[in-house]
């Protein structure tokens, strides 16, 4: 039973990096990707390029970010002794991560709620800054975990690992955009590449997870609690997977001029 | 303020903000789902317009529920690690189930609903909003299970320095839960309906273009407002018996007494007004035609929000000084090693950012209401006249 819940924790963390990695990456590189689109001679202003890029990630964000909510829930339910120690042990890192996450989400939710390029430009900047904050705080957090929660997590090692996470997310984001905005002819090729970069984005989380796995096993909840969690949550797993698959089946490659690309996005 | 006061204030401020948005989410979700169902069944465009307009209000509000909820989820570990050490084996389970079984699905289905307009088949799209509603209620249920455990740690036994779970069923039939959960659901419907009533009254009063649309919305709001207020008031009174058994002195401090009396006064008064005033005036649309009453309806919009916050204050302050009633004191639950500086920093960050975003969100909701149903972004179809293809311009 302990092994099952360790696996759930690992799948949620690695899955979060593989999925939310491209959302964060697109947010981080929004100004550069938009400029690249402009340079490539694609029609529209830089602001409209940003709209297209955000519209590309929009339908996935809610389904992706919730992996981290589930990760935190699993940590609390199945590893309660660890939850308090880990989160309070990295207090400033977790606060930075949460504030970044909130700002990233606020950028997404608010950018189209008023007309005008100034409003949208402001929230795009918030979205970009929040995404950088997320990637860097994740790097600092993982480096801190592997080193046994040092008193000063924002040191060179932490920031360097943050840069590694940011680079992996940016790399993943480029291949996601190529896939989402590709036409039917290129979809298979860009799709294969997307799977590959998903692995790259997941690695910065998978490696620390593998290193920490055996020590995590010593901190599981009591067998009675794990039983309750298993009975309540595991039967629902096929529905969770099904809902995620439904998202990916509903929103596929847009093409740049197809009908689907012209439906206005809510984000 | 010392660390403990700061951490408590941080939790109270973020928790209250969270509930202000969640209570409206819980109320609007089923009402939007009902509107969309009527559209799918009758095929009448007015119901589609209602779904999109009120749905847009619902999702703008939803955003802040998520932002504040993230802080709530992580705050237990950040500032109250003593709680997870003492009661994590019990308290963690409903929270974990909430995230995995309820919120994970709610967020996924909401994404499908928001971005699936004009893309998913009509009936599947309708299924999404019902699934969102169902999982939102499930989410509220598990959060209430966790909260009720703090009020009354049923189904547990002390083993060494921590609580062990002995009877999961007792957590689910906790006397602190069984009446409080429908009370919260009623409060949600009550709040959602009063937002619909207030916004409809605004448009009816201003005599904007969509009179038929808002007459209908007003009717929906009043009917469901009556259902919600009845549930909230009924299950509110039903709690007193249990509360006297498990927390006999709960409402005897000046603060809890004031909060409770404020909530009950609003609840009873508004329930009375809905039942004997607004509901009968629906006959022949008298309420929609009585323009002089509309400013009053607009002024009533904040009342359910005030009542909801007062209710939580009474429930949570009435638990003090315990975090787990009778077992673990709040002072013993705070994370070791926290400094005033750390909590001041996080409090300013959370309260500052969330407070500003909440303000922006309410202004956006007010603006969406004012703009009316003509220009709704949610579910907007492909523009009838797409921009000319660039190739032609060359």
Descriptive notes:
The complex is a heterodimer of chains A (267) and B (394). With 267 residues, chain A is an all-alpha fold. Chain A is 81% helix and 0% strand. Chain A has a domain of 182 residues. In chain A, helix 1 packs across helix 7 and helix 7 packs antiparallel against helix 8. The mean pLDDT of chain A is 93. By secondary structure, chain B is mainly alpha-helical. Chain B has a domain of 158 residues: Four Helix Bundle (Hemerythrin (Met), subunit A). Chain B contains 15 helices and four strands. A two-stranded antiparallel sheet of chain B has the order 1-2. A two-stranded antiparallel sheet of chain B has the order 3-4. Chain B is globular. The interface between A and B is large, with 68 and 77 residues.
Report the total helices of chain B. Answer: 15
Shape of chain A: globular
Q: Largest sheet of chain B, order of strands side by side? A: 1-2
Distance between the ends of chain B: 68 Å
Detail the poorly predicted runs of chain A.
none
DSSP helical segment count of chain A: 11
> What string, H for helix and E for strand, traces the elements of chain A in order?
HHHHHHHHHHH
| Helix content range of chain A | over 70%
**N→C terminal distance of chain A:** 41 Å
Topology, number of strands of chain A: 0
- Please provide the count of β strands of chain B: 4
Q: Strand content of the residues of chain B, in percent?
A: under 5%
Question: So what's the oligomer here?
Answer: heterodimer
Tell me the greatest interface: A-B, 68 and 77 residues
Uncertain regions spanning at least 5 consecutive residues of chain B:
385-394
- Average pLDDT of chain B works out at 94
Radius of gyration of chain B: 23 Å
Rg of Cα set of chain A:
19 Å
Structural class of chain B: mainly alpha
Helix content of chain B: over 70%
Characteristic key phrases:
heterodimer, A: 267 residues, mainly alpha, B: 394 residues, Four Helix Bundle (Hemerythrin (Met), subunit A), two-stranded antiparallel ribbon, 15 helices, 4 strands, globular, transport (chain B), electron transport (chain B), iron (chain B)
